[in-house]
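Re-run with default settings, no changes from the original entry. Doing this only to confirm the output is reproducible before filing.
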Amino acid sequence: MELKLGISIQALLAIAAAFVADRRGGLPLTWFILGIIFGPLAFAVALTAGKRCKHCLSWIPKDAAICRECTKEQ
């Protein structure tokens, strides 16, 4: 019973990390795998991933030179 609960929580954290990273310009599959391995730590790091575009305020990867939404330089 405890093992099932632990696995369920780990899976939910992995899904949450992938969702948050996707919304912030990251790669969801990578963050899902990191969430499976590291759990809450990956979720916390995913919350800090990415930056906002200066023009349209959408989330983009930190190293992006051009926003994928408005196609303007950063």
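The CA atoms of residues 9 and 39 lie 8 Å apart. The helical segments are 2-23, 28-38, 40-46.
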